[in-house]
């Protein structure tokens, strides 16, 4: 599909049968879990965009302020005509803050939600007719290769503190994979949520409007639609709280009643009060994150924090500029 001349689409999504097997296995374990990547069907992506605009959700507001304020400095670090590769691009809102300053030769948004990715890529290309967009539908949490070959320094962009969705060992391994993708002269621009008062964190994941709850519960709607499941979504509730020992917000779905759910022909039993773990959001101290990045093969070129030290944006160079 190539509906806009400067947009190219590549589908590297996981076959449905493999997805069903992964979900059934994770729900058969104790405790039960669903990987956060399954949040992002089209509706889930829309709900997450709503979350980023909530007053309690400081992350997007603070990060976009940092990106806007330091766009020219970021451009000087990336250099001209880079290949800009965004992990978990969603609606590609944040990249709009950088495009005019960076002027990349190629923009490659990576996202697991194929339909949402196509809409966002076409919209972006319409706004920036000079931009060549290579949109890749892929599970970027696993190994993959870029399906196109272009000249220019590879610079990966991973905003939103999505690195926090990985456990700390998983995050370290993920950074190493990014380092392999960008190569010896590449770089990574990444947003990281920092450790702070628990009340601020808990409010961000339990907003008064209930959008985060709807986002969390939507994963069950997604499984109903894609994997022939029959979750009664009204019999589950959203639970999110900061775990100080783990240094992260943990999100769960709680079964309010004893029930049995069918998913792709497999019966899955729940006791009343049983939890499904859906997401972690790890928070980092600055030195802790930089040490992990160094172990992955990156060196800090620059970092920017807001006045309250709620959030950090880090430019990490493979070559240690």
Give keywords.
four-stranded mixed beta sheet; 26% strand; alpha/beta; globular; 321 residues
Question: Summed up, what is this model?
Answer:
The protein is of the alpha/beta class. It is 34% helix and 26% strand.
Plain-language structure description:
The protein is α/β, with parallel strands linked by helices and 321 residues long. Helix content is 34%, strand content 26%. It has helices spanning 16-28, 42-51, 58-69, 71-78, 99-102, 114-127, 168-182, 198-204, 211-226, 286-295; strands at residues 7-12, 32-33, 83-87, 106-111, 133-138, 154-158, 187-193, 236-243, 248-255, 259-263, 266-270, 275-282, 299-305, 311-317. The strands form three sheets. It has an eight-stranded mixed beta sheet, sandwiched between helices. Strands 2-12-9-8 form a four-stranded mixed beta sheet. α2 runs antiparallel to α9. The longest helix is centred in the last third of the chain and has 16 residues, at 211-226. The protein is globular, with a radius of gyration of 20 Å. The termini are far apart. The mean pLDDT is 93.
Strand-helix topology:
Layout lengths: L6 E6 L3 H13 L3 E2 L8 H10 L6 H12 L1 H8 L4 E5 L11 H4 L3 E6 L2 H14 L5 E6 L15 E5 L9 H15 L4 E7 L4 H7 L6 H16 L9 E8 L4 E8 L3 E5 L2 E5 L4 E8 L3 H10 L3 E7 L5 E7 L4
Parallel strand pairs: 1-5, 2-12, 3-4, 3-6, 4-5, 6-7
Antiparallel strand pairs: 7-14, 8-9, 9-12, 10-11, 13-14
For the report, how would you describe the main beta sheet? 8 strands, mixed
Kindly estimate the percentage of residues that lie in beta strands according to DSSP: 25-35%
Arithmetic mean pLDDT: 93
Radius of gyration using CA atoms only: 20 Å
The ordered H/E elements are EHEHHHEHEHEEHEHHEEEEEHEE
Q: How far from one another are the termini?
A: 39 Å
Number of helices: 10
Largest sheet: spatial strand order: 1-5-4-3-6-7-14-13
User: Can you tell me the overall shape?
Assistant: globular
**Unreliable stretches:** none
Q: Compute the number of strand runs.
A: 14
Structural class: alpha/beta
Give helix % range. Answer: 25-40%
């Amino acid at each position: 599909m190539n509906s806009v001349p400067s947009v190219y689409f590549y589908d590297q999504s996981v076959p449905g049968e493999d997805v069903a097997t992964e979900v059934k296995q994770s729900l058969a374990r104790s405790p039960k879990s669903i990987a956060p990547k399954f949040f992002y069907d089209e509706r889930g992506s829309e709900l997450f965009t709503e979350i980023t605009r909530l007053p309690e959700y400081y992350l997007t507001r603070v990060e976009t302020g940092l990106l806007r304020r330091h766009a020219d400095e970021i451009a000087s670090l990336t250099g001209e005509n880079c290949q800009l590769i965004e992990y978990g691009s969603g609606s590609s809102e944040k990249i709009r803050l950088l495009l005019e300053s960076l002027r990349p030769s190629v923009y490659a948004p990576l996202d697991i939600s194929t339909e949402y990715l196509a809409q966002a890529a076409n919209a972006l290309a319409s706004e920036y007719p000079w931009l060549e967009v290579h949109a890749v539908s892929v599970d970027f949490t696993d190994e993959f290769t870029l399906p196109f070959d272009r000249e220019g320094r590879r610079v990966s962009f991973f905003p939103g503190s999505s690195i926090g969705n990985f456990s700390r060992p998983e995050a370290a391994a993920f950074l190493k994979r990014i380092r392999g993708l960008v190569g010896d002269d590449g770089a990574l621009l990444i947003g990281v949520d920092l450790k702070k008062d628990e009340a601020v964190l808990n409010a961000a994941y339990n907003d008064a409007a209930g959008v985060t709850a709807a986002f969390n519960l939507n994963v069950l709607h997604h499984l109903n639609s894609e994997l022939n499941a029959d979750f009664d979504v009204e019999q589950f509730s959203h639970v999110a709280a900061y775990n100080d020992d783990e240094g992260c917000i943990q999100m769960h779905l709680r079964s309010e009643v004893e029930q049995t759910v069918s998913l792709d022909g497999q019966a899955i039993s729940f006791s009343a009060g049983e939890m499904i773990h859906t997401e972690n959001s790890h928070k980092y101290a600055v030195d802790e994150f930089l040490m992990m990045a160094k172990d992955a093969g990156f060196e800090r070129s620059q970092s920017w924090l807001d006045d309250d030290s709620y959030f950090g944006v880090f430019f990490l160079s493979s070559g240690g500029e």
